[in-house]
Amino acid sequence: MNKTYKQEWFGNVKGDILGGIVTTFSVIPEVIGFTLVAGVNPILGLYTSMAFLILSSFLGGRPALVSAGAGSMAMVVVSLISGYGTDYLFVAVFLAGIIQIILGFLKVGNLLKYVPDSVMSGFVDALAIMIFTAQLKNCAGGDLQMFLFIGLSIIIVYVFPFITRKVPSTLIAIILVTIISCIFGNTTITIGELGNIKAAFPTIHAPTLLLDMNVWKVVLPYSISLAFVGLIETLLTTNVVNEMTNTESNNNRECKSQGVINMVCGVIGAMPGCAMIGQAIVNIKSGGRGRLSTLLSGIFLIFIIGIGSILLNIIPLAALIGVMITVSIATFDWSYIKEIKEKSFIDIITTVSTVLVVVFTDNLAYGVGIGLIVFYLGKAIKLKVIKK
To answer: Fewer beta carbons below 10 Å: N end or C end of the chain?
Structure first.
């Protein structure tokens, strides 16, 4: 067996099992929330997540990278769904996958090296803010018990590592808060109550509308947007995971993988997907390092879909909110603030503009685009001034 292959699959079995379990629970509430915003049945987002978690384990260019039904992709197709329905959505997702495969063969993944550190810092900081504000929205209107559960979950995440690091504190937080809620009674919302999840599995939907050029006129602009937004977020997330694990990835393979899986999502009638940086960080922080972590997460998700909402109806959303708050804190690039006196004016403006655009548009791709423009425009102006 190839040494690299063996390491990617079986080099971290215990950590991957634990990371995969926690990842599943971190994926579900966010995916359900995005599908509700998009105006579709939450099960479509879970189908997407199931397909991405399992297939990317074999096809992806970055082990332990968590891809699922991401919010950035859902936001792109909101108007398409409301105006034309899900049949047009599935065509758009299928075409987006084709475009991503083409971009993968064109080696667009190599362009990541042109993204400066100041943009990456802005991307990471904006993501941390988005994760944190999303949790504030999730707990809005909650009762005292919800806030106690959130606080308890946070305390467990930070304190449990002092007892042992053999089991991820994020998983322990979810388990203990759930047990306490069962013993004393839960008056707060559970994960299952976020959407009407019933036991059902996807079926094949032949994209017959692909033969209609009038449909192409409608969906092609959405497909192009989906392809680029998905790859931008995926490649930047890949870079963050690379730095966290001190490893490398095959970005062009990842681009092709994203394309193939989005084509599959179009065929099974699901939402578009891409890498989810918050969940990827959860996986890494919970011990996940290899392909087994995402595969097991996908299998566990199949189990949850198979039994409907039985398990999800006993897990308080507050437990996940607490975990995600700690993730947002860990995600923020605190070292950048400590070293800000050493940064150039262009770097600072680039980082700030990236953060502001992402926060105000809820779109990571827009923020990165503006950040790149600000950085290279600033460099060009500086160079022009020096030459004078």
So the answer is: C
Distance, in Å, from the CA atom of 354 to the CA atom of 127, rounded to the nearest integer, reads 11
Contact status, residue 370 vs residue 353, Cβ threshold 8 Å: yes
| pLDDT for res 279 | 87
How much is the pLDDT for 171? 79
pLDDT score of 388:
58
For 165-168, the CB contacts below 8 A with 24+ separation are 167/18, 168/18, 168/19, 168/22, 168/285, 168/286, 168/287
Residues 173 and 179: their CA atoms lie apart, in Å, by 10
Residues forming beta bridges with residue 316, ordered by sequence position: 190
Cα dihedral 294/298/299/300 (nearest 10): 100
Question: According to the model, what pLDDT value does residue 308 have?
Answer: 65
pTM above 0.85, yes or no: no
- Report the pLDDT value the prediction gives residue 383, as an integer from 0 to 100: 67
Task: Match 């062009």 to its residue by tokens.
Answer: 252
pLDDT at position 198, please? 67
pLDDT number for residue 320: 82
Residue ranges, the chain, pLDDT below 70: 1, 33, 36-37, 194-200, 207, 308-309, 383-388
Distance of CA 41 to the CA centre of its chain: 19
Q: Write a three-state SS string for the chain.
A: CCHHHHHHHHCCHHHHHHHHHHHHHHHHHHHHHHHHHHCCCHHHHHHHHHHHHHHHHHHCCCCCCCEECCHHHHHHCHHHHHHHCHHHHHHHHHHHHHHHHHHHHCCHHHHHHHCCHHHHHHHHHHHHHHHHHHHHHHCCCCCHHHHHHHHHHHHHHHHHHHCCCCCCHHHHHHHHHHHHHHHHCCCCCEHHHHCCCCCCCCCCCCCHHHHCHHHHHHHHHHHHHHHHHHHHHHHHHHHHHHHHHCCCCCHHHHHHHHHHHHHHHHHHCCCCCEECHHHHHHHHHCCCCCHHHHHHHHHHHHHHHHCCCCCHHHCEHHHHHHHHHHHHHHHCCHHHHHCHHHCCHHHHHHHHHHHHHHHHHCCHHHHHHHHHHHHHHHHHHHHHHHHC
**Alpha carbon distance 340, 363 (integer Å):** 25
